């Protein structure tokens, strides 16, 4: 289940009433998240959880990270990218269409999909819209130069997250990469947000999941200049081990 496109504040003690590991095993972990996002206004402020002000800073950081990827030896090409957990198309509109010939969007919330169509109607670079959760998304083989996954992984349990990454690997073209931009728990533990039914993982756990899925980290960069009180956000560039 994708998160749309939200930045999360540090979870307070009231949101820690359930064990985060056990909560992910409950089917309601997915259904509660879907119900939450159906009630969120399809605006930048809505999908960013009231933090519209960080949108431009986020895009600047992502732009720098993406340009660094293109400067690598044997970089991915710029033919096709998929925006996973695309929300209303904020990242697609402000970043991805500037670099790629075609952009696909994956988003489970129907109202967000419809808003993204409206926001992107003037662009000739939009390819496919997939209205489904990431736990159900399987890319075509040898299809994407970059898979962009931002602020959504907290809505997948550990098992589904590992399986999601494994399904992405065959969908990459030669030199293709996966970009993950995600909130990280600073406590060293998994933290549960009861309101939107999501978790924040510590970096150590996320790195283990990458490894188990058959991915290696080739870039790991901190997003800078976000307001104090938010989770640390890091950007990872991942390639298949083989």
Automatic annotation (TrEMBL):
According to UniProt, the reaction catalysed is: N-terminal L-seryl-L-prolyl-L-lysyl-[protein] + 3 S-adenosyl-L-methionine = N-terminal N,N,N-trimethyl-L-seryl-L-prolyl-L-lysyl-[protein] + 3 S-adenosyl-L-homocysteine + 3 H(+); N-terminal L-alanyl-L-prolyl-L-lysyl-[protein] + 3 S-adenosyl-L-methionine = N-terminal N,N,N-trimethyl-L-alanyl-L-prolyl-L-lysyl-[protein] + 3 S-adenosyl-L-homocysteine + 3 H(+); N-terminal L-prolyl-L-prolyl-L-lysyl-[protein] + 2 S-adenosyl-L-methionine = N-terminal N,N-dimethyl-L-prolyl-L-prolyl-L-lysyl-[protein] + 2 S-adenosyl-L-homocysteine + 2 H(+)
What UniProt keywords are attached to this protein's entry? Answer: Methyltransferase, S-adenosyl-L-methionine, Transferase
Statement: the UniProt record of this protein carries the keyword Repressor? no
Its GO biological process annotations read:
methylation
- Residues given in the record as S-adenosyl-L-methionine binding sites: 85, 90, 134-135, 150
Q: Which EC class is the enzyme in?
A: transferase
Q: Entry's Gene3D superfamilies?
A: Vaccinia Virus protein VP39
For bias type Basic and acidic residues, the affected ranges are 13-22
Tell me, what's a Pfam family for it? Methyltransf_PK
InterPro entries for the chain: MeTrfase_NTM1, SAM-dependent_MTases_sf
Q: Which family does it belong to?
A: Belongs to the methyltransferase superfamily. NTM1 family.
Please give the name of this protein: Alpha N-terminal protein methyltransferase 1
Q: Which organism is it from?
A: Armadillidium nasatum
The gene name on file is Ntmt
């Amino acid at each position: 289940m994708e998160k749309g496109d939200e930045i999360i504040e540090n979870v307070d003690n009231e949101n820690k009433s359930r064990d985060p590991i056990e909560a992910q095993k409950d089917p309601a972990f997915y259904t509660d998240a879907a119900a939450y996002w159906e009630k969120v206004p399809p605006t930048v402020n809505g999908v960013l959880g009231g933090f519209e002000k960080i949108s431009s800073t986020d895009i600047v950081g992502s732009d720098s990270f993406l340009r660094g990827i293109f400067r690598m030896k044997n970089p991915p090409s710029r033919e096709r990218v998929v925006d996973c957990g695309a929300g209303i198309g904020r990242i697609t509109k402000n970043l991805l269409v500037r670099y790629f010939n075609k952009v696909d969007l994956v988003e489970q919330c129907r109202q967000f999909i419809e808003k993204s169509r409206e926001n992107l109607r003037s662009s000739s670079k939009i390819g496919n819209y997939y209205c489904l959760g990431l736990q159900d998304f399987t890319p075509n083989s040898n299809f994407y130069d970059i898979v962009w996954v931002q602020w959504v992984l907290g809505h997948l349990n550990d098992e589904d997250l590992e399986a999601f990454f494994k399904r992405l690997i065959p969908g990459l073209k030669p030199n293709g990469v996966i970009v993950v931009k995600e909130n990280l728990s600073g406590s060293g533990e998994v933290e549960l947000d009861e309101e939107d039914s999501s978790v924040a993982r510590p970096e150590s756990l996320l790195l283990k999941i990458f490894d188990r899925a058959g991915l290696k980290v080739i870039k790991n960069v901190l997003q800078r200049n976000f307001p104090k009180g938010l989770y640390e956000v890091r950007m990872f560039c991942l390639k298949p081990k083989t």
